[in-house]
Amino acid sequence: MKQVIQSARTGKLSLKQVPEPKVRGGTVLVRTEASLISAGTERMVIDFAKKSLAGKAKERPDLVKKVLDKARRDGLMATFKTVMARLDEPLPLGYSAAGRVVAIGKGLEGTFHIGQRVAMAGAGLANHAELNVVPRNLVASIPDDVSDDEACFGTLASIAMSGVRNLAPHLGDVVAVLGVGLVGQLAAQLLALSGARVIAIDVDAQRLALAKANGAELTWVLGQAGLPEAVAALTGGVGCDGVLIAAATDSSEPLELAAELARDRAALVMVGKTGTEFPYAAFMKKELRIMVSRSYGPGRYDEDFEGRGVKYPVGWVRWTESDNLRECVRLMSSSLRQRLDVASLITHRFAFDNAEDAYDLVTTRREPSMGVVLKYDSETKPAVAPVFNQAHPAAGACVLGVIGAGAFARTVLLPELKRLPGITFQTICTTRGQTADHAAQAFGFGRATTEIDDVLKDPAINAVLVATRHSNHAELTARCLAAGKSVIVEKPLALDHAQVNQVIAARETSSGFFTVGFNRRFAPMIVEAVSLLARHQGAKMLVLRVNAGALPAESWVNAAEEGGGRILGEVCHFVDLARALAASPIISVQADAAQVSHGGCDDLTVTLTFRDGSLATIIYTAQGDSAFSKERFECFAGGTVIAIDNFLTLSITENGRTRVEKARMGQDKGHRAELAAFAAAVAAGGPAPVDEAELVETARATIAVLESLREGRRIVLGD
């Protein structure tokens, strides 16, 4: 299918052919009929992408701080690689569209039906693309008498409606709308429909004429003398009951003007991005209230609501972004005596194949425009089925398929694999077509796809990297093994014992092997530590301290159905590392969690007991400062002390002396060595680079951490 893609590094925009996305549980697959270019928002995104690195840094000082913190903690090289990889990600454009449902995901049977016309919302979801996969809470049915061209305004109208709801006007209130671009026009209409008296203010006389035709009582060209007097005359000297700021400018003049026009204790709502230096004295004397409206409404930026379909209690949240979207398309119905007229806002229509010309209009030529609609062909041509080469790979080859290409895969795993000799990059599969296409071009894969079977059923592929979200690691590993492929799966291997058993069952009948992305045991400093510890017989004492940092509450890692939480998702790394350092089987697990208020289980200690009498304590916390070193490991055995600090220094103390080794090229956490060992094992026909029984042991021990926390006792493995 075709999709509009922009480079985050250069800002270059293009219409590209990418693999078709696939419907997932809780989503619908929609064939797009019309999508709206939001000139203001999308121009801002495009202009930002075109800026130099210095320009981007000036625009986003918050991100600069994060980069500097990472550089201090992890080193310049690791930080540079991460930043450049992020800048290389493709950006899908568009967030307001309409189309027809062509497939329904699990759990939505009966809620939607094939052929149903829907409006869809969401940046990165309702894209300028022939096909889009959209979660249930960002889709609304379109009335029969509303055209696709009109319905594609749904998201923009929802932004305006959310701003109006936050303003909460009463019948007869006088409300000034500063800036009557697309969102301002929609807000002015919604205010008029709610019974407010609207004053439209803008620099463009043509926009003001359109606002007047659509219900504004008074219009005023910004800069023309006499505006305060005109407002006083209209309001009987009281001033505006509310001001909605929909202007897009770096200047703070809209706030200054709003303070001048507003009555005492009036409400101000911002739906546009403007300067935010407000005149304190004017705001204080009138006791003005200001709110920045949250895009489409309640639910926006909440991954549980948008991505997982969670509902809010209607008694507490009556109008969510879903409700706003439904109400906006309902108000467009021609059957209503007073309706939201979006057809009058359409100034240009372009065929989707000419999308680049449409963007040239709004970003480069900047000709007068309002609503710019992209029109799509009624049918999307089906993707051509792959024809596989039936020849088996030559002996000694590693022919790679990849499933999943998230940030970690793109920034770490794939670049390291690309540097290794003897690997053929055959096929990459992701859920989003633009991601697969971009990764295929960036790393030289022969094929990009959204169909997992294109990897599993290709006889030439003998190795698979699984780098998806945690919940399907076990299933995909088992499917790859059943297909005779060797697998390297990113941690964790599984989220529960049933999933572990699923992998074991598949491995028992497979000609391939599996390994897990526990890279730390391959790091040069860890390899040296293991070698030094092996000289000492008897029990060892290990302390592994992890300053993990806080994870955003909305992160998918915390979602039970996707990530399983940080214990399964990251603490497993250190369970495996302790297993490698102790070089003895784990026989029991005891865990205790700190009682903290930030939610989730991010602060805990884990004590591992090993068969040879060794003990390991893992201290994992989110309460530290991210500028402090993330990981420090201390090992005590036979009069020797080994300390590794953040993979930057290794100190060995014995016989009264301390020797310190420093990393020469920044952190090396073992990713390249891990991947090289996997590729070599595939080429040699096995065995796996790490004993698979040991990896199963680590998985079961990590799951036992959760069991220990739930049951408040020590868990003996094998009980």
TrEMBL record:
It comes from the Bacteria. Signal peptide: none annotated. Residues 183-303 form the Alcohol dehydrogenase-like C-terminal domain. InterPro entries: ADH-like_C (IPR013149), Gfo/Idh/MocA-like_OxRdtase_N (IPR000683), GFO_IDH_MocA-like_dom (IPR055170), GroES-like_sf (IPR011032), NAD(P)-bd_dom_sf (IPR036291). The keyword RNA-binding does not apply. CDD domains: 2-desacetyl-2-hydroxyethyl_bacteriochlorophyllide_like. Residues 401-518 form the Gfo/Idh/MocA-like oxidoreductase N-terminal domain. Residues 553-621 form the GFO/IDH/MocA-like oxidoreductase domain. It holds the Pfam family GFO_IDH_MocA_C3. Keywords: Metal-binding, Oxidoreductase, Zinc. Its cofactor is Zn(2+). The keyword Hydrolase does not apply. Belongs to the zinc-containing alcohol dehydrogenase family. This is Bi-domain-containing oxidoreductase. It comes from Magnetospirillum sulfuroxidans. The lineage of its organism: Bacteria, Pseudomonadati, Pseudomonadota, Alphaproteobacteria, Rhodospirillales.
